[in-house]
């Protein structure tokens, strides 16, 4: 049985988005990443810029106001809209979804292959500079802040600690594994997937 849905959770700068795109192309699946923003905007009524800033990351302002009903409603409404879009896509199947807590949202769905992509810090820094270029902000701060916001968002909405290996079917380190090889590995695993629901002790 081939996995109907593949979720890609990734560290910033690990190449997870590129791997997801390659996997989708190799399997002939739809690929969802930034193109989810428009779907979520239509579902929620939020501006695309707001979704881009808060759809995967918990910024400092929203964290500071987490106890207020205003902030809670904004966070919850956006997450609910994202959830609905992702669940609707899952019903259609044959897709690769990057980020946005899709691994958690689809944890009880059959036919899902859940992947985590990571890399050591130096490899991630090189990739960030290659893909996104130099900025006024130091590469160390960019990496640290992005990771911090992404982890905070994930934990806030899932109650899980982000990046724990036992939540995933496969974890790949792009520090030592080529991007293309990682994509080929995921495709091979997807084609040999049992389709069973993955359970953890914390579910």
Describe, in plain words, how this protein is organized in 3D.
The chain is α/β, with parallel strands linked by helices. It has a single domain, classed as P-loop containing nucleotide triphosphate hydrolases (Rossmann fold, 3-Layer(aba) Sandwich), CATH 3.40.50.300. The protein is built from nine helices and five strands; from the N terminus they run βαβααααβαβααβα. The chain has helices at 16-27, 36-44, 48-54, 60-64, 69-92, 102-105, 121-132, 139-158, 179-191; strands at 5-10, 30-32, 95-98, 112-118, 170-173. A five-stranded parallel beta sheet has the order 2-3-1-4-5, with helices on both faces. α1 crosses α9 (179-191) and α2 crosses α5 (69-92). The two termini are 25 Å apart. The model is unreliable at 60-71 (pLDDT under 50).
Largest sheet: 5 strands, parallel
CATH class: Alpha Beta
Strand content: 5-15%
State the CATH topology: Rossmann fold
Number of helices: 9
* Count of individual beta strands: 5
User: Which CATH architecture?
Assistant: 3-Layer(aba) Sandwich
What is the topology, as strand order, of the major beta sheet?
A: 2-3-1-4-5
The end-to-end span amounts to 25 Å
Shape: globular
Q: What is the CATH homology-level superfamily?
A: P-loop containing nucleotide triphosphate hydrolases
Structural class: alpha/beta
**Unreliable segments (pLDDT under 50, ≥5 consecutive)?**
60-71
